[in-house]
Amino acid sequence: MTNSCVFCKIVSKEAKATIVYSDEQVTAFRDIRPVARTHILIVPNKHIESVNALEVEDEQLMGHLFAVASQLAKEERIDKGGYRLITNTGIDGGQTVFHLHVHLIGGQRMKYPMG
Ligand code: AMP
Ligand code: ZN
Q1: Is the distance from the beta carbon of residue 50 to the nearest atom of ligand 1 less than 6 Å?
Q2: What is the 66 CA–ligand 1 centroid distance (Å)?
Q3: Tens digits of per-residue pLDDT, 69-96?
Q4: DSSP H or E stretch at residue 72
Q5: What's the rounded Cα separation, in Å, for the pair 59 and 63?
Q6: Which atom of ligand 1 is nearest to the CA of 30?
Q7: 50-75: burial string, b at 16+ Cβ within 10 Å, e else
Q8: Does any ligand 1 atom lie closer than 6 A to the CB of residue 31?
Q9: Tens digit of pLDDT for each residue in 27-40?
Q10: Which protein residues have a CB closer than 5 Å to ligand 2 (ion)?
Q11: What is the pTM of this model?
């Protein structure tokens, strides 16, 4: 838990969010500024700043996080149509909240190319 981290506060329920899934390892909640019909953020419960800060011991956690993303896509009924998973990393990557998160975005045709 990092005192000033908004996603740590959502995990600990100190801050409000629309939580759609949680377990002992990860929490998923709706993005406050959705860019598509489905826009969910999935975060590890423990504070990891970004992909840059991942350690070998986090491999199982990240695998679990993607399994939860897959499950949520089914629940949102966007699995068949398809969706996008995004993890912005660092300033050039467009990261604005420095607690690792995966965006699950779907419900419409995504624009391409990226970048
Ligand atoms: P990123 O730019 O990849 O770091 O994404 C941060 C995301 O967090 C943005 O899409 C924000 O809209 C979202 N966000 C920031 N604060 C909150 C919050 N309190 N509850 C839900 N989503 C948030
Ligand atoms: Zn945090």
Answers
A1: no
A2: 18
A3: 999 999 999 999 999 999 999 999 999 9
A4: helix 59-75
A5: 6
A6: 21
A7: bbeeeeeebeebbebbeebbeebbee
A8: yes
A9: 999 999 999 999 99
A10: 2, 5, 7-8, 47, 99
A11: 0.97
